[in-house]
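Fig. S4 source data, part A: sequence.
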Amino acid sequence: MAEYDLLVSGGTIIDGTGVPRFIGDIAIKGGVIAKIGRNISSALAARTIDAKGKIVAPGVIDPHTHYDAQVHWDPYCTNSSWHGNTTVVVGNCGFGFMPCRPEDRDRYMAMMESTEQVPVPALREALPWNWESFPEWMQHMREIPKGINLAAFMPLNSLMIYVMGIEAAKSRGATDAERVEMARLLNEAMDAGAIGFGFSYLNDQNSHKDVDGSPMPTDNLCIDDAIFLAHVLRERGEGVIQCLCELPPGRVANRDAVEALARASGQPVLLNIITPVDAIPEYHRSLLDWLDRMEAQGLNIYGQAFVNRSWNQLRAVDFDVWQSTSPSFLEFTIARTADRMTALAADRAFRARAVGEYDPMEWAGAGGPLETFKLVDAQGATRFAKYNNTLLGDVAAAEGVHVVDVFFQIIAESGALADFRTTMATSEDPVKSAEILRHRRVLSGTSDGGAHIKFHAGGQFATDNLMWLVRDTGIIPLEEMHYHLSYLPARVFGFANRGALLEGMAADLYVYDMEALGYDRDQYETVHDLPQGDWRRVCRAEGIEWVVVNGEPIMKDGQDTGVTPGRMISVRGVHADLQLLDELPLAAE
């Protein structure tokens, strides 16, 4: 028998800890890095990857995804695994499918479609619903094939609805008895492998709204209920809290809540999100300064960055991020169907009201002012086809009407099927972006992978960070970037055996050609790979040759290999991602 299962030979190793790069070999046995050295003979390995001239780096860890559903029909969680992601976190923003009573399943699926745009027909076909509790869901997840590793927050919306009921969860705080029961269930979930709890707290400003356009339970929760649960983490001495509570440029800034959660829990709290706003550079700097002040007070708070050059490519019938910009756009969004949206857009009185309510400053979180949206394809609106690939602001000027009016005219004439693209969804200022990402208390990520699949793809964030901020501008050293992409999030989450290429750690890594690294920056690709042949938008990787999870190659040049070595990982107990030593096989769950 071969001494090693896999040898990655002769690559430039970036180990993730921040130490300088070096050329070497990585020998893997039983899913664990058994040896790092030079001139390890390929004769000792059952299989060898020739990495000469390539970068070998730890697999990317993405703290913010929504692959809870997609992993059931796509075990590789693409786009993310195409781009070197080997571990993703689900249950973010308080959304998930556990715990769930049988009578609430349709409601949970409808909410997941309304908030994260995961289609209900796909959910109905793919989810077996062989669970009610979090531990039962976790056992189910351990049993299904997974190409990459997943970790899960307890989603607080689900927990509140399970204990309080949907109407009570949306309209009042928890009673003392309900708080005690939620704490019990959180303890039960963490015993089973949950890594903490996640929720959004954006009041009525969150674009992630319920099916009727009202806020989700956690957005208007009594914050003392969340603080009560934070004490569970303090008592256990483990876990992380994720809180979406910040909307640029400071439209919502519930930082006091994050501070209170950090004081109550004594554990890491992730503030979502930090992103640069070109017109207001002092905005992101105020957040970084706040993180410094919190650290000086002994609070373990991290910001989660949304720092990559991504965009939304959308049809109105699939998009919802603009619903918090005005009452008229909320009404338009919750119309839901192309026919009802078309009827509203054709109504002159509705268009006039929408024009009167329009405030471009409210559109920062919707991809930028409507003037900066580009008409990609007018579809059936033939009168506007001559404006394809033109900004809506320029279309409005040419037509002599307000930008909101011309937008709704296009919607009405295309049957809500015209295709648009944002051009200001994220900043393309590398200096501001690097300033955020290099802060010691900022995590990269926020791909939202698995969500918003008909207008967004975010799994390429690490590829973009490497291309843009390392290779093309040279602002961030390669070693520092991989520290932020892998080692730092692993330490924050308590994944003791992940995030670095060190002997005794799990063999999660990827091999790429720095010069060839890239993706299509002009448009997303449309693929029909959902259940029932439904479609989504994707962004494929270029220049990434191999992705390895737990010692098994899962991707070769963007094609999956058919193996599924991924695990559900956690931080403590019988299901913990244990620190492994020497050449021991990766511990069984």
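Fig. S4 source data, part B ends here. Residues 176-192 form the longest helix (17 residues).
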